[in-house]
Every structure is written in C-alpha cells, then in structure tokens.
Specification:
10 strands, alpha/beta, single chain, 6-stranded mixed sheet, about 325 residues, binds pyridoxal-5'-phosphate, 12 helices, 4-stranded parallel sheet
Length: about 325
C-alpha cells in the first residue's frame, strides 16, 4: 500500500497513545482490553475526524480552495474539528448544522463559534442535505469552497484510517501485542471502512466490530454496502485493487437505544465505569454507546479471558457538557442510593 504520494496536511498529534486498561480488565474478569486514544489527536480537543481532515484539507489546498464547507448535527465533532482545521490552515469555514439556533450555545457548537466558523441552520436535515445550496451561494460570492461530506466520509477521508492501521501495526510490534478484535463506534462509515481497508492491505488479521450509532436514512444503501464501497475506493487510492463486499463488515446495531444523540442507561453506565476505573472520558453520543455495547458483549461472554480487545476511542468529549443535565442526574441518583 502506498500513501506517501498523496498530499497530507499535518493537523493531528500522531501517533496517539495505545494503552492497557488494566484496572478495568481486572474488574471485569474477561478479555484484556486496550484503548487507542484518538480522543488525543489534538486539533481543538481531539477526535477521529482529525485523521480524515489531514487528507481532505490537503486536497482543498491543492485545488486552491479558500473555504471549507461541511455539515452535521448541532453537536457534531466533525464540524468542530473541521472549523479548527480551517483556522489552522488559513481557510474560512461554513457549517450546515441540523436543528435551530439554541439560545445558549454550548459543547461543540460553542467551540465552532470560537473557532470562527459561519453556521447555517438546516432544520430537520443534519446529514448535509442542503450543503450544495451553501456551496453554490459561496461560488456566487466569488469564493472557492471545498465541500466535505457528512462525517468527512468519502474515500479521501477514509484514507486517514488506512494510515491509522499502519500506525497501529507499528505500535503493536513495539508492544509485542496481538489483538483479536478492535471495537469502534461506526456512524458515517469512514472510520470503519478506512480501518478495514488498512488492516486488509497490511495483512493484519484482526476482527473489526463496528457498533452502530444511528440508523441510516430511508432510501440510503444498506450501511454495510456503503462501507464496502468506501473501503474499496480508499484501497484504490492507496494503490490496491482489493474489492470489499458487505460480508467483510461486522456492524452491531443492537445499541441504538432511543436514537442518535439521546444517551440512555447504556451510555451513562459506560461513561461512569471508564471514568471511575481508568480516569478516561468517553462521550454520550458515540464512544459511550460503543463502549457500552462492548461491555455488554464482554458480560455476555463473547470474548474469553485469553483474548485481547482494543477499544478505538474516537473522541467526542465536548458533547459531555451539552448533556450535563442527563449525566449529572445519574450522579445524584447514585449518591442518594
Ligand atoms: C464521527 C464520530 C464517530 C464515527 O466515525 P464515522 O467515521 O462517522 O463512522 C465516532 N466517534 C466520534 C466521537 C465521532 O465524532
């Protein structure tokens, strides 16, 4: 696989740490659990989107664009890191966010504003349905916009996680560590597809389990089909003609709860357990759900005590502050009980 010929803008602090969760693994009495700290990629409080943006922003600069345009939910981590990448690269940033403007912006939305992004509210559409309209308006104003899809999940963005597989390979060698399974939160797909492509191209035989975070939109291709298309396209950019099929992907959609961005008991318990046993924060929307799903499967005995798991922490902590009310309620109950 070849990535060196592709333009890449250095935005993330890499490699991110690879750490054992010794206290938690012991407490659970199950497999050995390690964590990959992509919550520490830097770029305005970390997260997985920094890896994708290294390839996307480089492409924008190569094309002579002056403005990044992307879309997401009001509390999108992707939008916050895109705003930071724009600022760090001397570009303007326009964000198309789902919902209506809140009275008091907090969490990621507050950071978007501090980072200088212009926000366009799009009502019920939070996956970039109205992105093209904003791009066209910027063209009309004489700007040179560069559109980044929802979640940064196109082939170029997914390359960030092809490169991440290489980074992991080097760290596993240095630790003399062998993994059975990687667990990751999966939503717009660039992370899981890129990582799957990277693992395959490097002949790393590790099971990759995506925990589904939200249901796709009606009319979209089935999610695992989207992952296959994206992984094949990312592999092609990396110089390989490997093709992926739906069956190459495991996505567990059993933890969707009350829906996207609505934390429940699963997320609350996961956030509290990892925080109190290891001092590490996962978020209420993505990584809390994925970590909770992994804990549930460990308790069901899916992996034996002789196996080794890696939880790939994709970030998201700024949304903790947006969900303060739901999360603080949990602490209250525990103290009274
Ligand atoms: C975007 C995001 C994900 C999901 O990554 P995709 O590439 O969209 O599947 C997981 N965790 C966090 C914190 C995210 O912001």
């Amino acid at each position: 696989m070849h990535l060196d010929h592709l333009p890449r803008q250095r935005l993330a602090s890499l490699p991110t740490p690879l750490q054992p969760l010794e206290r938690l693994s012991k407490a659970l009495g199950g497999p050995q659990i390690w964590i990959k700290r992509d919550d520490q990629t830097g770029l305005a409080l970390g997260g997985n989107k920094a890896r994708k943006l290294e390839f996307l922003v480089a492409d924008a600069l190569r094309q002579g664009c002056d403005t990044l345009v992307t879309a997401g939910a009001a509390q999108s981590n992707h939008c916050r890191q895109t705003a930071a990448a724009a600022a760090a690269s001397g570009l303007d940033c326009h964000l198309v966010l789902g919902g209506e403007p809140p009275a008091a912006p907090n969490g990621n939305l507050l950071l978007d504003q501090l980072l200088g992004a212009s926000v366009h509210w799009s009502g019920p559409a939070r996956r970039g349905e109205t992105l093209e309209r904003v791009v066209a308006a910027l063209h009309d104003d004489g700007r040179h916009p560069y559109a980044i899809p929802y979640g940064g999940s196109n082939a170029l963005g997914a390359l960030g996680f092809v490169a991440a597989a290489e980074e992991l390979r080097d760290q596993l060698r240095a630790e003399a560590l062998q993994l059975d399974t990687i667990v990751i939160a999966s939503s717009s797909g660039g992370t899981q597809a890129g990582l799957a492509a990277g693992l395959r191209l490097l002949d790393m035989e590790i099971e990759l389990v995506g925990i589904g975070i939200d249901k796709g939109e009606a009319g979209d291709a089935p999610y695992r089909e989207q992952l296959a298309t994206l992984a094949s396209a990312a592999a092609r950019l990396a110089g390989s003609d490997t093709l992926f099929a739906e069956d190459d992907f495991i996505v567990d959609e059993g933890y969707l709860g009350a829906g996207y961005g609505i934390p429940g008991d699963l997320e609350r318990e996961a956030i509290g357990l990892l925080a109190r046993s290891e001092g590490i924060l996962v978020d209420p929307v993505y990584t809390g759900r994925a970590f909770g799903g992994m804990l549930d499967q460990i308790r069901q005995g899916r992996w034996g005590a002789d196996q080794t798991l890696l939880f790939w922490h994709t970030g998201g902590a700024p949304a903790l502050f947006h969900h303060a009310a739901e999360l603080a309620a949990d602490v209250d109950t525990k103290e009274r009980g």
